[in-house]
């Protein structure tokens, strides 16, 4: 009998699930992607600025996996026929803002955690002799603590505040003292179960990575991430339902019934399996009746809000010879990171073209600082960027603000165990994917979507 599968959520995780379902399911399987907004892509969205494609969300993804092969995102792009469209950033260094001045990011850290303290000159002063070998591993098997708790106890406050915090903030918009080590740095968590010093654990974690020398760390799609989304939608050959929210799920025998649309005029749809690829709180609402314990746990996940400010500066505007910079929270600026976009991505730069700068604004717990008009946020970003690069910037010829309210999940210690408990509590035929459960970043979301598709396909083959 022909099967029908619902994928709820049209972001990258949901689309990766739909493509995988198309690849592994019988040819007549009907796949329906429900996206309550008017467009696919979620937080992957390419905008335009001064005639150039500039990302309004994630700008790149990891190029390689831990085993040295292609990352799931690169493999996905190749599956979609976009292998020849992959581009890589210029080999430019990045900087940290220390005391209002730009200082190169030390080499050889693991998300800001150094394995060689001698590289920190000018950035942070570690606590002397704090990282002593006490004769036992740093963590017990399966133990999870905040990144900041581990690093502070071994290296001291400055290393956390000036290096680890801005590095984690650039990815998660969160603080090291609230983020789970196992969720954000799983390799370091594993090596900390056997190593007696943090330096040893960092070096052991770095040794596990089989990076190919000279291979770029990051990749993007020429033309923008929206091109990746469009290719995925085409490859899935799914029925795409936009602007029609899924408001409820209930079990009906061996199938599932979805309640769709506005409450006064509900519609229903019956399917054989469901993949939920939406943020934690909408997922919790949909699971409330069919998996109440999972819903309660999932609904507790907190999120951070951020905004992106993009500015097209006049051709030839001088900027430091960097790809961009990160700002520790202690500097007090609203700007937490900046990318010199046309320098970082040389395929977009031209001798007479605009100089594009993109700044990330706001961190977890700073939502009130974003409650300003777009023009006010742009003015603050323009002023702070000028101060941080050492002088005032010329007026932007074009600009925009992109707000992402509640966009980035904040993984508190114990998050991986909570996710495992949530998944164990799900009824058969229902799977979860997305940043809420799998992690931040395009590769992990792609891999999570594909894993959910495999789980659902295995379930349907068995029934």
UniProtKB/TrEMBL annotation:
GO terms for molecular function: oxygen-dependent protoporphyrinogen oxidase activity. It holds the Pfam family Amino_oxidase. Keywords: Cytoplasm, FAD, Flavoprotein, Heme biosynthesis, Oxidoreductase. It catalyses: coproporphyrinogen III + 3 O2 = coproporphyrin III + 3 H2O2. Its cofactor is FAD. Pathway: Porphyrin-containing compound metabolism; protoheme biosynthesis. Its main location: cytoplasm. Its EC number is 1.3.3.15. One of its GO terms (biological process) is heme biosynthetic process. It is an enzyme of class 1 (oxidoreductase). Residues 12-456 form the Amine oxidase domain. SUPFAM superfamilies: FAD-linked reductases, C-terminal domain, FAD/NAD(P)-binding domain. It is found in: Cytoplasm. Involved in coproporphyrin-dependent heme b biosynthesis. Catalyzes the oxidation of coproporphyrinogen III to coproporphyrin III. Belongs to the protoporphyrinogen/coproporphyrinogen oxidase family. Coproporphyrinogen III oxidase subfamily. This is Coproporphyrinogen III oxidase. The lineage of its organism: Bacteria, Bacillati, Actinomycetota, Actinomycetes, Micromonosporales.
């Amino acid at each position: 009998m022909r099967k029908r599968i619902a994928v709820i959520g049209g972001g990258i995780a949901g689309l990766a699930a739909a493509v995988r379902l198309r690849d592994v399911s019988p040819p007549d399987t009907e796949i329906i992607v429900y996206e309550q907004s008017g467009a696919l892509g979620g937080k992957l969205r390419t905008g335009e600025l001064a005639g150039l494609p500039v990302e309004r969300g994630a700008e790149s993804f990891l190029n390689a996996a831990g085993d040295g092969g292609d990352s799931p995102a690169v493999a996905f792009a190749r599956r979609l026929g976009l292998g020849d469209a992959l581009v890589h950033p210029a080999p430019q260094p990045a900087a940290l803002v220390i005391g209002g001045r730009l200082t190169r990011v030390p080499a050889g850290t693991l998300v800001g955690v150094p394995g060689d303290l001698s590289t920190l000159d000018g950035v942070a002063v570690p606590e002397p002799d704090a990282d002593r070998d006490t004769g036992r591993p740093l963590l017990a098997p399966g133990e999870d603590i905040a990144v900041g708790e581990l690093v502070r106890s071994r290296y001291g406050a400055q290393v956390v505040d000036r290096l680890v915090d801005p590095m984690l903030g650039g990815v998660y918009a969160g603080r090291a003292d609230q983020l789970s080590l196992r969720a954000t740095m799983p390799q370091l968590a594993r090596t900390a179960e056997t190593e007696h010093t943090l330096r040893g654990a960092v070096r052991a974690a770095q040794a596990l990575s089989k990076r190919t020398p000279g291979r770029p760390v990051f990749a993007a799609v020429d033309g923008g991430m929206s091109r990746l989304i469009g290719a995925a939608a085409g490859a899935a050959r799914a029925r795409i339902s936009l602007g029609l929210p899924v408001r409820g799920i209930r079990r009906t025998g061996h199938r599932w019934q979805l309640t769709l649309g506005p409450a006064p005029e509900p519609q229903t749809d019956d399917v054989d399996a469901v993949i939920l690829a939406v943020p934690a709180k909408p997922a919790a609402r949909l699971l409330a009746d069919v998996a109440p314990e999972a819903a309660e746990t999932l609904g507790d996940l907190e999120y951070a809000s951020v905004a992106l400010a993009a500015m097209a500066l006049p051709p030839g505007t001088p900027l430091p010879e960097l790809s961009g910079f990160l700002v520790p929270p202690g500097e007090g600026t609203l700007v937490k990171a900046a990318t010199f976009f046309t320098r970082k991505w040389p395929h977009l730069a031209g001798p007479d073209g605009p100089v594009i700068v993109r700044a990330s604004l706001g961190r977890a717990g700073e939502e009130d600082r974003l409650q300003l008009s777009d023009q006010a946020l742009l003015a603050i970003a323009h002023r702070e960027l000028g101060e941080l690069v050492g002088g005032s910037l010329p007026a932007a010829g074009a600009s925009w603000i992109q707000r992402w309210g509640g966009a980035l999940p904040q993984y508190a210690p114990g998050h991986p165990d909570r996710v495992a408990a949530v998944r164990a509590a799900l009824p058969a035929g229902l799977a979860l994917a997305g940043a809420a459960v799998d992690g931040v970043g395009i590769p992990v979301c792609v891999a999570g979507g594909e894993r959910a598709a495999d789980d659902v396909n295995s379930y349907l083959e068995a029934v």
